[in-house]
Records
---
Amino acid sequence: MQPIQRRILLLGASGYVGGGLWSGLSPRHWVTGTCSSRRVAELIPIDLRDETALAALAQQGFDLVIHAAGLVDLEQCEANPPLTRDLNVRSVEVLIQALHGTSTRLVYLSSDNVFDGRLDAYTEDDPPAPLTVYGRSKVAAENLLRDSRHVVVRIPIVYGRSPFSDRFFERFRKARTLAQTDIVCTPLYLPSLAPALEQLWDYSGLLHFGGSEVMTRYTLMSRIRDALQLPTEIVPVRSAELPGGQLRPPRLILRSNRHSLSGPGLEEALADLRSMASP
Ligand SMILES: NC(=O)c1ccc[n+]([C@@H]2O[C@H](COP(=O)([O-])OP(=O)(O)OC[C@H]3O[C@@H](n4cnc5c(N)ncnc54)[C@H](OP(=O)(O)O)[C@@H]3O)[C@@H](O)[C@H]2O)c1
């Protein structure tokens, strides 16, 4: 069944995840995307810290505002907590206020980094225990949205191609790339996120959406390299050997007790990647 066509404001469309959503949602919906430092002709530039401009844009009669913008790099967040707060938390406060009294709903993308990785797997019922400035900022934003009509979707590490910031595949442009053998996750194939959101955005509250297979980052990278016959050497490393390694919880498995959706398995994702042009 075709999804109902929505008017969508996509904050962070120039980014890695936002770009994937832009590609996935634009053919089926009216999508207005934003960029910031990366200027992209078809996107509107905005700084989330310009609160007046952000509120005015959000109030332009959209059905949904998807918030995929902000500061994501764990080390940059540790180095600059005020900026992390401004981009990841304050922007949500501004949007909630701007959307008050309208029918526009907010879809906020959060992260498995709200957990410390001590449990075998996490559902929406498990209490957050963030280890980092980034994780704490995501929890603070989630708390603003708790018990509201808006929706928070937590996702794990994402892989696949993205149109404006192909960050995942940049690693394969190097001769060697390091990949952790002791970080276990449910990686999510980026093209599966847009169709999942189309099924999840009418929910309210907190949702998890992850990939269907549990694997290490090393396995993920090695299998992509092999499947696409890329020349890059994938070097196995322990997390502790990397700068900022202690910031990454060792095991983050996202499961949902609110819906039965998950991303495709790796073989299906690899077949899709193989069908595209090589990097
Ligand atoms: N990537 C993952 O594996 C992953 C995993 C879990 C959750 N997430 C969540 O997914 C969302 C997107 O992450 P991502 O990996 O796509 O990050 P990203 O590639 O770094 O993209 C961040 C986006 O935010 C925009 N942005 C940065 N500073 C801004 C500012 N001051 N004003 C307005 N926009 C600004 C960027 O615009 P410019 O590039 O134009 O500056 C870009 O569009 C985040 O909420 C993150 O927590 C990502």
---
Amino acid sequence: MIQPDVVTAFTAVRDINLDEPGTPQAETKAATFKSASSSIYDLAASMSAKGQLWNWGVHDSEFVAEIEARLPGFTEYGTDGFSEQLYYLALRDLPKGLESCDGRTVLEVGCGMGEGLNFLSRLVPTARMTGLDLAPKAIASATATLSRGDTLRFVQGDAEELPFEDSSVDVLVNIESSHTYPNLGRFLREAARALRRGGALSHIDVFTRQRLEAMRRITTEIPELKWVSDHDISDQVRAAVRRRMPPDSHLRSTLNKQRMNRLARTLALHSQITVFGGTFADYQPPASVKMLSRLGLVPPMDSLPMETYRHQIAVRV
Ligand SMILES: C[S@@+](CC[C@H](N)C(=O)[O-])C[C@H]1O[C@@H](n2cnc3c(N)ncnc32)[C@H](O)[C@@H]1O
């Protein structure tokens, strides 16, 4: 049976991303949604394998070569590396590249179980990094398995109400998280408040047409953030999502090692590909899954009409 929290969260994400004027959700609705969203990510934290990141990823052979030069063997860490490439991109394209973080304070808002930030802290070991997430179990898992004193720590909190002093952050990273915030403007204002002058916000997310229009309008209302780049990275994201589909993919070989029958494996693969950007990359479910869907035995996994996946950078002026 589908849990009520799942229904609440999916309905709210639809509202947030399809709302024409991009108006903030009413406070009571927003609070209900945040509570459902944090329950779902708590559940995901209790089911996720160690080392798992929660974004669609990107693939670009240049990124792989650049990461390999800094962290030899990074592709042998037990993941397919696509989600780590997305994290690398978040710092690579900052005005001063990865050096923007040397000896500096880095905050990730919406860090999930912290593996992406852990990866960044290996790329820039001199930085002081903090990860914040709404889901308490994700933060508990990150703290128990990854935290390392001032170098890497994790706190539970809300993107729309950051528990940090004014002007206390040099680089703020936000990856595939803001499309679920009921009030995007409040998050961007909080980011501007927490950043020091000259600091940077690296924002990566997937957008419906409506949400992109809303973001463009909201950004004109926050003069403290000067947007210096806005790149459409949809093709690189699709390249990563498509690399998870073939029989020899890392995702498939991981599932093949797990004890389950053939149908369960087919369904697990289908849900993983769908959740991690399948529709955006034109994924077609196999005939067996289509038939089970028609019979109502597989819940429909309607995806939102996502138009573009973007990386945007703003400097705090
Ligand atoms: C798709 S996951 C991405 C996680 C991570 N950035 C990654 O790329 O692997 C979205 C994350 O945003 C978090 N999130 C959602 N709403 C939030 C909010 N209002 N404040 C902080 N985190 C939030 C979720 O709990 C979840 O961990």
---
Amino acid sequence: MLQTPMADHAAPAVALAVRDLAVQFRSEQGVVRALDGVSFDLHAGRTLGIVGESGCGKSVTARSILRLIDHPGIITGGRMVLDPSTPREIDLASLDPESRQMREVRGGRIGLIFQEPMTALSVHYTVGNQLIEAVRQHHSVSVAEARNRATELLRDVGIPRPETRIDAYPFELSGGLRQRVGIAMALAGDPDIVIADEPTTALDVTTQAQILSLLRGLQEAKNISLMLITHDMGVIAEMADEVTVMYLGRVVEVAPVRQLFAAPRHPYTRALLHAVPSILARPRQRLSTIGGAVPHPGSRPFGCSFHPRCAERVGAVCMERIPDPVPPGQAGASCFRTEVPA
Ligand SMILES: Nc1ncnc2c1ncn2[C@@H]1O[C@H](COP(=O)(O)OP(=O)(O)OP(=O)(O)O)[C@@H](O)[C@H]1O
Ligand SMILES: [Mg+2]
């Protein structure tokens, strides 16, 4: 059985343990290691924030868990264990993506909320028809029962007049309402884990706050284990219990949210935090951004991948060796700086 060390005795069970996950995209141009040994724990009933700049591998992580990586991506190593250390434990990496078991996990155990709700919705069918089909994929109920359940789901996600709105087409709804339907679709199979990949990035600020508040309410009411992917430290502060910071396909820091904000250990985390607009900032003060861009994973820098952009390099070691990964199940940073005695 997979060992999942707990931070303390009060820590809840681990719902999903990802260990040493490696994903490559192979093409004629070469091999791109999009994920290179990613490990983290998603605790039951908690919100795990996954944060990092564009291209760090957040979506590839989400899609790997659901076994939905786009061709030519392949999982080349690692495990993704549901219900670890229980008799029900199952390694999703070992399943055939097309198998019945994996289709049941998708939607039935793990729901996925996309950045753009139209990824999950069709323009050709009413909201109700799509929700009814999603309900019936995971529950053997009549169409009438599924319709009642679909109406309930729309009410759960705060859609006004769900009895009428159920017959609307997605294009008749505003962006905010469409994302609410997207959330209802993710919940249709009663999953206990939900992965939300940048669920509010496409929305205006006010709608974003409403959707985050809805997600938090649903997560608490249904005791969902939520994996929330974002590039926005503000969203992390508001939503997450624990945080995994990713850089170029690797985990660079893991910490409880308060610890991450109070005492970030990795220079990349510190740089991300400095780039957050502060409510204390003067109105026209410029936002600081991290110098340089995330390199392409196909041309990963030697040594610590972050070293060319790092303002806190400790020496040649940063350019020559890869720092040890954060031990699974523990808080820490993958950085020579934290390994060097003060
Ligand atoms: N379909 C694909 N074909 C080839 N490479 C891909 C593909 N999808 C992802 N990658 C590689 O994986 C890397 C990580 O992509 P991913 O979509 O996970 O980033 P992300 O962290 O979700 O970024 P964003 O914040 O922009 O959504 C990309 O930089 C790219 O090199
Ligand atoms: Mg993404």
